[in-house]
Amino acid sequence: MSMGKAVASMGALTMVSRVLGFIRDMLMANMVGAGMVSDAFFVAFKLPNFMRRLFAEGAFNAAFVPLYTGKLVDEGREAARLFAENILSVMTWFMLLFTIVCIIAMPWFTYIAAPGFSDDPPKFALTVELSRITFPYLMCMSLTVLFTGMVNSENKFAAGAAAPILLNLCLISGLIGLPQLFGLEIGHAMAWSVFLAGIAQAVWMFYFTCRIGMRIFPKWPRYNAEVMRLLKVAGPAILGASVAQINLLVGTMIASAIPGAVTYLYYADRVTELPMAIIGIAIGTALLPMLSKYFRLGEIEQAHGTMNRALEMAMLFTLPATFALLPLAYPIVAVLFQHGEFGADDTAQTAMALVAYALGLPAFVTVKLYAPGFYANHDTKTPLRIAIWSMLINVSCGYTFMLIFGTAGLAMASTIAVWFDMLMMQRNLKKQGLMAFDARVKQRVRAQFISALVMLLLLSGPVAYFWSGFVSEWSHTLKTLVLFAIIAVGGAGYFLSAHFLKAVDFNEARRILKRTK
Q1: Does the global pTM surpass 0.90?
Q2: How far is it, in rounded angstroms, from Cα 339 to Cα 39?
Q3: Looking at residue 281, what DSSP letter applies?
Q4: CB atoms < 10 A from the CB of 82, how many?
C-alpha cells in the first residue's frame, strides 16, 4: 500500500473516531460541566494514558516495529511470530505486576499527578477511586499497541486506526446507559466505560493478528538476547517518552491548583488533537514501517523522498487547521461544549487555551513525522536529549505563564516547548543525513502557508460579524449551521488558493490514493 493510501485510510477512520469523540465530550460537558467530577475523571483518565504513552505507545513502537520488520524481511514470518510472542509474554507479566502495584499505591500517584486536589479531600478521594477503576486500561492498551504494531508492519493500517472508535463508543454508551441500568454516579460510569473499552480494543486487535496468520498467546517469558536488544533500544525511547509525558504531567500538576483548569486544558487539547491525529499520527504511523524497510535495505534516497512527501502532505492540512483555529476558537468551543453545566466563562477559558495550543499545531504534527526518522534508524538517544531540553523549557515557562495568563499560559508553555523540540529534531535529522529537503517540498509548503493566510483573511470578517453580541440569542442549531458555513467558505478559499499557487496537485493526489504496492 502506498503512503498516500495508507494515510487516507487511517485519516478517514481517525476522523470517524474523533467525531464520536466530540459527541462523547459534548455529552460529558453537558452532563458534568467543569467541576469536581470532571476534574477527577480527567486526572483518572490521564494516569493510565500517561503510562501508556510512556511504556507502550511511542517507546514500544520505536523499538518493536523496526526489530519486528527486520525479522520479517530477514528471517520470515514464523521467526517474526515467535519473536512477537515472547515479547507479548514479557509485556503481559510485567504490566500485570505493574498494574497491581499502581492500584495499591494510587493515593500516592494521585498526589503526584494533582497535588492541588489534596486541599479538597472529597475531590482527592473521588480521583483515587476513579483512577483505580481506569488503571487496568493501561495493560489492555499495552497489548493493543503490540498487536497494532504487528498488523501495521504488514501494511494493514485500518484496523489499528479503527480501534479508538471502540473507546468512544464505550464512553458514549456508558454515559447514556450505565447510570440508568446500574445506578452508577456519572463519574463512576465514565471510569468503568474506560475499563471496558480497554478490553474491547485488545480483543479487536488480537482478532486482526489472527487474520494475518500471526496468532500469539502469552507464555512464561524467556529473557533471551532478542528481548535484551529490544529493551536496550526501548530504554532511551522510554526515557524520551517519559520526558514528553512529564511535560503533560507538569501542566496537569500546575493546573490542579486552579479550579476547572484541568477540564479547560482537556477540552482545548481535544480540539487540537483532531488535526494532530488525522494528519500527524496517521502519517507517522505509516512512515515508521516504511522507513524501517528503506533503512534496512540501504535505500536512503527513497527514505528522503518519503519524508519529503510526508511533510508536504502533513502541512497541506495542518497549516489551514492552525490558521482557522485562531479566529474560530471561541465559536468552535461554544458550539461543541457550551451546554448544560458548561457555561460561557468555561467557553472563554477553554477558547484561550485552544488558541495557545493552535499556535503550536504545525510543530506538534511535524514532531510526529520526524520521530520515525530516528526510530527507523534505531536512534532513540537523540530524541531523548532533545526531549529533556524541551521539558526544561516547558517547566520553566509553565508556572511563570500561568501567573500572567492563567490556564492559557500553560498551553502556551507547551507550544513553545514543542517548537523547540521540532526545530532541534529537524536540525539533527539533517545533520545525520536522515533527511534532506528537496525543491518541491520547499515550494509547496511556502505556497500552503500563503494559502492559509488567504483563508485567515476570509474567516476573520464573518467570525467578527456573526459572533458579536447578538449571536447569543441564536439557537444552537443556527449557530452550528453558521459555523459550518464559515468553515466551508474558508476551506474553499484555501484550496482554491492552493490550486492556483501550485501548493497541491489534485490529479497527483488522486493517483496516489489509487496506487497500491
Answers
A1: no
A2: 17
A3: I
A4: 14
